[in-house]
Amino acid sequence: MDWFDELPLDPATHPVSMGTHALGDRPWIVVDDRRDDELAEKRRSLADRRDEVAWFTDEARGPAESVCDLLAAAGVDVDRSGEHPLEDAALAVQDDLCLLRRIDGVWHFDASVVCFPTHWSLPTKVGRPIGQVHDPVGGYHERIATKVTRLFDRVGEKPVLRRNFGLTEDSGLFQPAYRTADPDIAADRVMHDLLVRSERQTLRRIDDGWLLFCIRIQMASLGELLTTPERTARFRQWVAEVPAEIAPKRHLGEAQRATLLQLLAEH
């Protein structure tokens, strides 16, 4: 899996950190062999639980049309026959799409399609200032709130990239509920059943006062990811050295840590 090398595996890296980089020569939109299945799941979500995964505004129509134009310029085929251009854009890519709007100097969460949330619920976020959106994230205001605003104010048309990740045993893409327990999988099933769930996030300016935030969920088992001794060694170092106060934020419990350390030493 090519995205393994993008994971922030420095044990000292706090999950609540900026970690943004220029996209460089990496693609803005990533397509893989799960595309058809994931787009079909998006269509089902928009049909069956629309109020949970989508929120559209008339003010966002112009910026959303610009998103469709950007996707078309990137070689993505966009069917523009839906009720809102942001829905059309979201049904053309595996990413979830969020439009952010600057109002009186404050960035707000505006029109969005989030079919694959990771432990958060779209209806509780839309229309709110970004600071309020991140209220449940422990350490956000103390660590990075000011930096996030500065980034949003200066980001340009060239996308910036950020990664996060966590461990899970749930292969479902729609996971709005916050986790109350960390995975604890037996050693003989860990390589197959313990998954790394990662958000590949990109941010770019659309129009004056509007930004596009893309969230692409990528998941793979440890067995799929740890394909070389070097990768296994890097992941084992993270498991061994990540501090106890940070590990739960990646959903690494102490029981799973002990199992992983023993298994990875033998892998």
Largest β-sheet summary: 7 strands, antiparallel
Task: Give the end-to-end Cα distance, rounded to a whole number of Å.
Answer: 18 Å
**Helix content range of the residues, please?**
25-40%
Structural class: alpha+beta
- Run of helices and strands: EHHEHHEEHHHEHEEHHH
How many separate domains?
1
Q: What is the arithmetic mean of pLDDT?
A: 90
Q: Uncertain runs with pLDDT below 50, 5 residues or more? A: none
Radius of gyration: 19 Å
Notes on the protein architecture:
The mean pLDDT is 90. A 7-stranded antiparallel β-sheet has the order 1-5-6-7-3-4-2. By secondary structure, it is of the alpha+beta class. Helix 10 (229-241) runs antiparallel to helix 11 (254-266). Helix content is 33%, strand content 20%. It has helices spanning 35-48, 50-53, 61-73, 85-90, 130-133, 140-143, 145-154, 190-193, 222-225, 229-241, 254-266, and strands at residues 21-22, 54-55, 96-103, 106-113, 160-168, 195-207, 210-221. The chain is globular, with a radius of gyration of 19 Å.
What are the SSEs and their pairings?
Layout: E1 21-22, H1 35-48, H2 50-53, E2 54-55, H3 61-73, H4 85-90, E3 96-103, E4 106-113, H5 130-133, H6 140-143, H7 145-154, E5 160-168, H8 190-193, E6 195-207, E7 210-221, H9 222-225, H10 229-241, H11 254-266
Antiparallel strand pairs: 1-5, 2-4, 3-4, 3-7, 5-6, 6-7
Helix pairs in contact: 10-11
